[in-house]
Write a structure and sequence with these properties.
With 119 residues, the protein is mainly α. It has one domain. It contains five helices and two strands. Strands 1-2 form a two-stranded antiparallel sheet.
Length: 119
C-alpha cells in the first residue's frame, strides 16, 4: 500500500508541475509536508525535464515552491528529512497521513486538497 501511495503522490506532484505560476495556486499545508511530497516525487524517478533526464530534488523543490508561492527553505533536503523522522500520534510523516487518506477515500486527491486557487 505504501508503494502505491508513493506512486500516487508522485503523480499528483507531477500534475502540479504542469500548471503555471500565474494560476495563483497556494499551498495551505506545512512547508515540511510540501518538502516531503517533493522528496517522494524525487525518489520515485517519474519527473523528467524536456530532455528526458530525471529532475533533481532541488529542481522539484524550486518548481513546487514557485508554483505554490511558498518560500524556498534554506535546506530543503533537511526539511524533508525532518518530516520523515516525525514520530507520535499527532505528528506522523506526511506520506503516512497521505496513505491513510487514500485508503479511506480511494477517489480522493489528498495532495490537491491542500492547494487552493487565489483569485
Amino acid at each position: 500500500m505504501k508503494r502505491q501511495a508513493e506512486r500516487r503522490l508522485a503523480s499528483e506532484v507531477e500534475q502540479l508541475m504542469s500548471h503555471q505560476e500565474c494560476e495563483m495556486l497556494q499551498w495551505t499545508g506545512s512547508q515540511i509536508d510540501l518538502m516531503e511530497a517533493a522528496y517522494v516525487a524525487f525518489v520515485s524517478c517519474t519527473l523528467q525535464n524536456d530532455e528526458g533526464n530525471y529532475l533533481s530534488f532541488i529542481d522539484i523543490v524550486r518548481a513546487t515552491c514557485s508554483l505554490l508561492h511558498v518560500a524556498l527553505p534554506r535546506n530543503p533536503y533537511e526539511t524533508a528529512a525532518r518530516g520523515r523522522r516525525r514520530k507520535g500520534l499527532r505528528n506522523r510523516p506526511y506520506l503516512e497521513r497521505y496513505t491513510v487518506k487514500v485508503n479511506q477515500r480511494p477517489e480522493s486527491s489528498p495532495f490537491w486538497e491542500k492547494i487552493t486557487s487565489v483569485s
